[in-house]
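Internal ticket #5521
Category: modeling
Description: The requester needs a full-assembly model to guide mutagenesis choices. All entity lines are attached below as received. Residue total reported by intake: 769.
Assigned to: D.W.
Attached entities:
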Amino acid sequence: MSNSNNINHDSNHAGENTNSRRKFFKNFGLIGAAAAAGGAAIYSGHEYEVSKPNHDMVKVLTADNRLVEVPRDQIKDVKLDMTELQRQGREGLKGHRFVMVIDLSKCRNARKCITACQGAHHLRPYEYHINTLVMQESPETAPYYMPKPCQHCDNPPCVAVCPVNATFKRQDGIVLIDNERCIGCRFCIAACPYSARLFHWEEPLMAEADKGKPYNIELNVPQKKGTISKCLFSSDRLREGKLPYCVSACPNGVYYFGDENQDAVTNGTTKETYRLSELLRVNGGYHLMPELGTKPRVFYLPPKNRLFEFKDDRDQNKEKT
Amino acid sequence: MASEVNTDFLFDKRLDSIATDILRPVGISKGFLVWMGFLIISLSGCIYAYYIQWDKGLIVTGLRDYVSWGMYIANFIFFVATSLVGMLISSVLGLMGFKWVKPIARIAEIIAVAFAAIAGLVIVSDMGRPERLPYVFMYGRIQSPILWDVTVVTTYLVLSTLLYLLPLIPDLAISKGRIGHTPKWLQSTYEVLSVNWNHTPQQYKILLKSVRILLIIIIPTAFAIHTVTSWLLAVTLRPGWDSSIFGPYFLTGAFVAGSAAVVIMMYFARTNYKLDKYLTNYHFDMMGKLLVLVSLVYLYFNINEYLVPAYKLKTADAVHLHDLFVGEYAPMFWSVQLLGLIFPIILLLFKFFRRPLPMSIISVVVLIAAWFKRYLIVVPTQENPFLPKQFVPQAWMVYQPTVIESAITMGTILLAVIIITVLFKLFPVIPIWEMAEEQSEKDHKSEE
């Protein structure tokens, strides 16, 4: 603006000196007044904006479970710290009762579920949250493969015996382990009839790489020496609305996973959803060792009508490990 | 134990001779120093073994996911078991009025204190995260048998310590002026522990009353510690542990182990401290009969524990029993049952074997067998879980204890021996005042 004044000044140089100066001051005054007024307006507007009570608000659930409102522009993304991860991990997902259905007639011991699980939870090849076993009830009956995750019992013997509440049952039916609490007494291993738990006898596989990461109780990573680890039904994935690692990794359609409350389970391979009660009724679903009274949350469908060759590869796999 | 004490014995000239006899070995001798030196040097090796375990984790043991409780837990059960004898001798037999337990009672209490005190350490040696031990108190869940075990073992230790210390007070007062041959600090320790005892009848009355109360309340406590310890296994669903008689089975087994330990220590005191006047053939004879009795009761429970499942042979029980009877564990199982139970019962029926030396040798065998019996209760069950063991390294299939693990276990035994040594050598092992009282009572009776 001063630039244009200067041009003005130059063009009227001859004979109109006083006039142009007056003009200049007049212009200057006007501009100054306008600037001041504008500034004041902006300032008062800002003041008003800051102080006005009905700002654009967002409802937020706090860590101590209160529903509060905060201005949208004041929300900052926070990386969950361990306390928060522990809290939400111990609480579980409200309104759900997770179940797994394992169709034994489809399992060919591809062991993709196992590798996916071990990859996610940073385990060695012989450290199992889920293991596929070669089963044969008696010499006359046909052998079959049986994937065996934690049964997430509704009457869990492991939880009953834990002296420090390190292993616990969540409202969504999942049994978890808190390796920040575990004292390593292994009473839960002794109590579990399904041999579903593992103990970190030495430094875990990725102890170095995982150093310093906040402990996620729903993933049980970082794993810790001298503590228990176990199948978590991939509760970190469930929180994101995804299927568990093992379920998604199966190439043979063995696994169904879902919610008992919705009476629906989804096959991890075909992504088709079925009615749980119907699936169990039609296929004769059953529990593993129901006589023990553990009330598992994992159902099995019998190994009938298998259309593939059974190959006993126990020894071969033993060598690999 | 009479409720009134006639303090006449204090003026009996025989108190002097009894005190001299019993206090003669008290103090620090060359033998004691050499023995303690040996114990401490060996212990430091065991502590180093524990340091390795602390550093590397439980991978240095033979434990793996299938057999995750091994030697340590077996050792823990053995320790708790052996400690129970304090209650058996002092309370059960003492309260029933058996006079012959008087000179033995303190030996039994020493064993109780030593083994109960170390039992807690044994459990810590098995923990993957020993530094989190305080969590048991901070976050303890009352549903867990471990909580019950911690509570009752601690209570038993306190009660046993009191039962050792209280009857010791008059002896410490009697010892005043009679232990000039011992170092100054030991004399001051006696001074402090004797809490200004001056033998008034009132003091004896209070002492007897408190001891009597302790003797009564230690009975349910002792029952509780071993019953709860058995429940660590019995509350699980595993074949071999899933048994409703585990409580009494463990309890009776405990009396066998404890009685054997007492016999061994009696023999030691008799020969090394020249206390054969107080620990006579009669006492050994009675202990021999006691050992037969408790062994017979234990045999009865063994028959129940093994024969009833063996008759039915449920699938999982069958595998377990096969391992014990004819399988991998058969040599150990039959050695333990024969050497630790059947043969001692038969031999001790004869008076010849109830003499000090033969009986002590038998007791050593019984005590070793008792340790292996706990091993047989803990380990084989886990080698046969319900579901097959597959796709794991070969080392995971069976349990093979390592040197480090054995060294740590040996360390806990050494610790117990150290406690026993100190209490045996630095304090009178036989209650002087009770012996003197008994003598003067006898005299009174014969005068009448």
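Resolution: model delivered.
Comment from assignee: Confidence is low (pLDDT under 50) at residues 1-15, 317-321 of chain A.
Ticket closed.
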